[in-house]
Structure formats: C-alpha cells, structure tokens
Amino acid sequence: MSYVGPDFEPPRPRRSRRGPLTVAVAALVPGALLGWLVYEAVGGSDAGASAGAVGTPSSSSASASPRTSAPTSSAPDDAKQPAPSAAPTTSAPAATGPLKGKVVVIDPGHNPGNFRHTAEINRKVDIGTNTKECDTTGTATNSGYAEAEFTLDVAHRMRTLLQAQGATVKLTQDGDRPYGPCVDERARIGNAAHADAVVSVHADGSAAGNRGFHVILPGSVHAGAADTRAIVGPSRGLGERIAGNFVRATGSAPSNYIGDGTGLDTRTDLGGLNLSTVPKVFVECGNMRDNKDAALLTSGAWRQKAAQGISEGIVSFLRG
Ligand SMILES: [Zn+2]
Predict the structure, then answer these.
(1) What 8-state DSSP symbol labels residue 94?
(2) Residues paired with residue 226 on neighbouring β-strands, in sequence order
(3) Stretch 26-38: mean pLDDT, rounded?
(4) Is residue 20 over pLDDT 50?
(5) Amino acid 93: pLDDT
(6) Annotated catalytic residue 40
(7) How confident is the model at residue 278 (pLDDT cuts 50, 70, 90)?
(8) How far is the CA of 170 from the centre of ligand 1 (A)?
(9) Greatest alpha-carbon span in the chain
(10) How far is the CA of 49 from the centre of ligand 1 (A)?
C-alpha cells in the first residue's frame, strides 16, 4: 500500500486536474487493449515486441482463498530472531534463455509476520533524506486477504516466469523470516546483488472507488546515504515498460486516483527507492480497499496476469 505506514506518506488528496490521458483511459475502460494503445502512443511500452515472451497464461492458477478475518494469532516463535541480513533467497542459476546473466531482485512488500512484530518494524531506519519506520504491516482487502500474502504470491509467479527466461532471481524475503526486512535492507539486497532490475510488489490501501494500478518511480534524491541520480533515468525506463505490459496483460486501467492517468508516479520519500543504486520501481497492482479491485487481487488467475505483465516489462527493459 502506499498511503499508510513508514514507507509512505499520509493520504494525499485526489488530484483534481485530469490530464488528457486520464480522460482517454477513462473513456476506454474497460477497453484495456485501447488503454494499452494509449501507452503505445506515448512511447510507454514496447509490449508488442515481448508479448508472449514470458510464460503462458495459466488457466490452472489456484483461485484465491481470502481469509474471513485478519490474522490475530500470536506465533509461538515470536522470539525468533530475524534472519541475518543480506541473506536473500536465491534461485538456481538458469542455464539458458534471453535473460541469461541478468539478475532480477523481486521485493515482496511487507511480510505476513509483520503484524506480530510491531516494535521491531516500527524501529526507525535511515533512508537518506530522513528516518522512517523499518517496515509496515501493509493493507488487506475488506475480506481479510493480506497485502503481504498477495505480494509473496505475485513474487513467486514472477520468479517462475523470469527463471524460465534465464534470469537469476532473488527475493528480498520469502516468508522465511519473522518480519521485515526493513526498507533499507530491502534496498541493500538489490544493491549487493548488483541487480539489473528490482521490482517491489505491492497493492494499495486507498479509498473505495479508487481503482487501478500505478508504478512508483524514484525521484532524484541526493541526501545522506541516498543518491538516486544515476538510477532515475533507467528506473523510469523500467517503470514505463512495466506499466505498458501490465495494462496489456491484465486489462486493468492505470490508476484513476494518482498519476494523472499515466499509471506512473514519482516519489522521493520511499527508503526502498532512495537507497537503491540499481534500477528499481514499486508496482501498486490495485487497491485492496476497493471491492472491484479486490475481486481481481484475490483471483489467482488475475495474479498470474499481473505477474506476467510485470515480468514482461522487466524482460523488455533488460533486452533493451
Ligand atoms: Zn504495500
């Protein structure tokens, strides 16, 4: 989510000004293909070149099984210490494929265990421009499907798709630690891996009626330990390709509440971006608090499409 918690600013008022793209996209919804053509028109996507390059639609995806209530149990292993830092889950190197030699880091937002570790995740960390909490619990649908479950599921699907293309894929967390990692560590994992691309996967927690996805790009930051100046350009290239491919793969329109209809938003307040030294973006796949978006986010078949769209954007970016 991008409105609550340490890594995100408080809710910002919906922008009143609508750009021409917003109007165009709104007029075309649910004409997803046409929405994608809007991207083509503005040069935001070369999706056609890589369409179908990543995996195949999965008709066998498991359907979602949203919880009926938010998790409340306390785990017996609460005292367990977090895994040592910089110990990301690493895939076996792929032998062949167009992404052979490329390293992709997938950062599943939040952690299913964060809600049991509020003291730890509220600890302040340095993000260059200022300090922020280590991590947040994330949001959930009204029926209790947690964002942290969503992000891990999409990350797993992406890992499978990208490994099939020959990429070496690392996850910043795989539900294998009690909480976190903190946002600064999430950035360091991508940096230490010398990743060619990093994507942080999220879903938003905005007001009902706010719908659609957006990709968050790093703005130019040069303060303290943060220096994004070298990654602003390539990250935008990565983000534009993901946005275009996301529209095409999912049929979802870009956000109707942020980004003026472009599906792109630039921020300088996110530690995970500020501290990155490699191309990195966040993807907010939809709004969990909107019931129509939630119906998509809780669908395994839709999550497969989302994973394909993001992955195809990555492939497009890395193949140049
Ligand atoms: Zn989030």
Answers:
(1) P
(2) 223
(3) 40
(4) no
(5) 52
(6) no
(7) very high
(8) 19
(9) 54
(10) 30
Residue type, 143: S
How many CB atoms are closer than 10 A to CB 95? Answer: 7
Distance 2 CA to ligand 1 centre (A): 6
Residue 229 burial (CB count, 10 A) = 11
Rounded distance, CA 57 to CA 48, Å?
16
Which residue, among 81, 43, 11, 55, has the nearest Cα to 309 in the 3D structure?
Answer: 55
**How far is the C-alpha of 215 from the C-alpha of 243, rounded, in Å?**
7
Q: Cα–Cα distances in Å, from 166 out to 23, 91, 102, 245?
A: 39, 11, 8, 19
Active-site choice (133, 147, 149, 284): 284
pTM: 0.75
Q: What are the tokens at 295?
A: 């119906």
3-state SS assignment for residue 265: strand
Q: Answer with the residue of higher pLDDT: 18 or 186.
A: 186
| CA-closest candidate to residue 232, choices 273, 199, 191, 193 | 273
Q: Is pLDDT above 70 for 119?
A: yes
Q: Give the residue carrying structure tokens 């905005």.
A: 206
- The angle, 0 to 180 degrees and rounded to 10, between the axes of the packed helices 232-250 and 300-319 is 140
Nearest alpha-carbon partner for 320 in 262, 249, 246, 238:
238
**Could you give the CA distance from residue 102 to residue 95 in angstroms, rounded to a whole number?**
12
